Amino acid sequence: MRKPLIAGNWKMFKTYDEVLSYAGDIIQRISDVKDVEILICPPYVYIHPLIEALKDSAVKTGSQNVFWEDSGAFTGEVSAPMIASIGTEYSIVGHSERRQLFGETDETVGRRVHAAFRGSLTPIVCVGETLAEREAGTTFDVVESQVRKGLAGLDADQGASLVIAYEPVWAIGTGKTATPEMAQEVHGFIRKILSDLFGREVSEQIRILYGGSVKGDNIDALMAQSDIDGALVGGASLDPASFERIIRFKR
């Protein structure tokens, strides 16, 4: 049985004081939640303060990105060993904003995935099509290419521990959401690819999250789908009350 994972991606939001206030609030709100893994991915500068603020809770922290080298003369970059050394367990890799705004490619996503594993981080590998690609009927081609290239060279043990996040680009921050049936169709397709890459037994262990304008009013229907194992939440994760509602999705 795959344990649901609800991950909040804060993107480039919040001040230091807001981070500490949020941490205190969310701890109180979800202290009794035991059957859902909870993750928050703040900007790099807040990872350690958030870890400290959340140390008496079950809430984990992750980074929003990771560089593909372990060390070196790479001004402005942050490596997996650095991130892991302060107690972080996860890293988002290949988010659509990184692909669209900062030139990420399937190749560099793959390099970051391998770097995450070398540094003892669990990568949350993001894939998804643009509106133009969906309207052109190439959703499955695009997603398959992203999955296969992003995970190329991984062994079955690595495959079993990674997380995939399907985020249709046209639904991120737009208020539009893929219907639960649309999301399930792509999630099921991704699981078939994972079965081809790592074997059916391993593919059944891999959690596939949905991301794209996830909110309290659509999380229940999304989580009712057989291959949706959680959510990568953007804007709705910035408010403790709305994030709590998503964490406490109805089964």
Task: Sum this structure up briefly.
Helices cover 42% and strands 15% of the residues. With 251 residues, the protein is an alpha/beta fold.
Give the ordered list of helices and strands: EHEHEHEHHEHHHEHHEHEH
* Whole-number tally of structural domains: 1
CATH topology: TIM Barrel
Strand content: 5-15%
Secondary structure layout:
Blueprint: E1 5-9, H1 16-29, E2 37-41, H2 47-53, E3 60-63, H3 80-85, E4 90-93, H4 96-102, H5 106-118, E5 122-127, H6 131-135, H7 139-150, H8 156-161, E6 163-166, H9 180-198, H10 200-203, E7 207-211, H11 219-223, E8 230-233, H12 240-247
Parallel strand pairs: 1-2, 1-8, 2-3, 3-4, 4-5, 5-6, 6-7, 7-8
Helix pairs in contact: 1-12, 5-7, 7-9
Task: Based on the model shown, name its key terms.
single chain, 251 residues, alpha/beta, TIM Barrel, 8-stranded parallel β-barrel, 12 helices, 42% helix
Protein architecture, described:
- Helix content is 42%, strand content 15%.
- The protein is α/β, with parallel strands linked by helices and 251 residues long.
- It has a single domain, classed as TIM Barrel, CATH 3.20.20.70.
- It has an eight-stranded parallel beta barrel with strand order 1-2-3-4-5-6-7-8, surrounded by five helices.
- Strand 2 (37-41), helix 2 and strand 3 form a beta-alpha-beta unit.
- The mean pLDDT is 96.
